[in-house]
Amino acid sequence: MKLLILDRDGVINEDSDAYIKSLAEWVPIPSAIDAIVRLSKAGWTVAVATNQSGLARGYYDVATLESMHTRLRELVAGQGGTVGLIVHCPHGPDDGCACRKPKPGMLEQIAAHYGTELAGIWFVGDSRGDLDAALAVHCQPVLVKTGKGERTLAKPLPAGTLIFDDLAAVADQLLL
């Protein structure tokens, strides 16, 4: 199985330190949508694992979050692609859950859903928490410079982290 796991905010859509709280604030990165379409058409399953502590903070509700994910699926489907499983962590940073990145719970949930091992699977994110979650389950950590990626790049990264300008560059590499 060709599986690629993505973080959402900062990788697929523009990020905001004030949270993405509405469908209007969910602004896709056009090249990221195209990258997902290209990967999907080439036989890749593209899954998403996203921390959404805005739910715990009361900034938006699950219906609003689902509307964002529906819009993502519509944009990709409109170009002939598909998005695989989307999982989210609804907890706040101090809730002690097993799913909030850097914990690997969401990645394990994706692996269980697809009945696959995670070793060597690329997990693309823009934060140190994403990279640490990848390492916890032996995924290949991949950092994109979009979103918080440049800030993350300014600090030491885990050994072996792959670095790309954006999701389109990741797709280019995987589709060689």
Automatic annotation (TrEMBL):
Pfam families: Hydrolase_like
Co-factor requirement: Mg(2+); Zn(2+)
Binding locations of Mg(2+): 7, 9, 126
Subcellular location(s) per record: Cytoplasm
Residues binding Zn(2+), per UniProt: 89, 91, 97, 99
EC category name: hydrolase
Residue(s) at site: Stabilizes the phosphoryl group: 50, 101
Record flagged with keyword tRNA-binding: no
Catalytically driven reaction(s): D-glycero-beta-D-manno-heptose 1,7-bisphosphate + H2O = D-glycero-beta-D-manno-heptose 1-phosphate + phosphate
The EC number(s) this enzyme carries: 3.1.3.-
One MF annotation (Gene Ontology) recorded for this entry: D-glycero-beta-D-manno-heptose 1,7-bisphosphate 7-phosphatase activity
Residues annotated as site: Contributes to substrate recognition: 100
GO biological process terms, semicolon-separated: carbohydrate metabolic process
Family: Belongs to the gmhB family.
Protein name as catalogued: D,D-heptose 1,7-bisphosphate phosphatase
